[in-house]
Amino acid sequence: MKRLAIVAVMVYLGVAAVYPQARPVKMTFSGTSAPSTIDLQQPDTRNDEDNFAGNGTLGSFTLRDVRAIANSPTPSDTCSGPNLLYVTESAGGGVFRFQDGSLLILRLTQGSDCIDFAAVKAHCTVTFEITGGTGRFKNASGTLTFTETVVPVLAVGSGNPVLSAASGEFEGTVHGMAREEEAQGEQQ
Asked: pTM of the predicted model, to two decimals?
């Protein structure tokens, strides 16, 4: 009986080593945001594209994402006032590229922007679902929440920004990441 218990513990520990645990993630970024030529075909939206670089728990990265942002404001309890405008984000996705060449693929599940015309900046919160990747993220899943502050750099016409500076952070959890040695073996 004692031998059976020892074997059961050894099998459990072996399985735990094969299936990595959830990994908490925190990463900071900065970069640019601009209107996108990519059409996500969402009604009554415009498409924005972000190009970021950053560093954090998973290492150095770049990120390119595209998001469909509503043209019409929506009422909000957290973003209301004479100089504030609240808009939602209905669709989008992105790809992280890490220094080791691994890709982490995201799909937007929800998002919102609180635009402050008096302060001339916006605060955005977006939730992304991790849908896989390559290298160490081949079987990855999880959720990342991104919070950013955006300030216009270049505007045209009646003040519509065509290029903005952005900075912020990602926080969340990644499940199913390969260990470093496994990821290196897959990429060779």
From this structure: 0.84
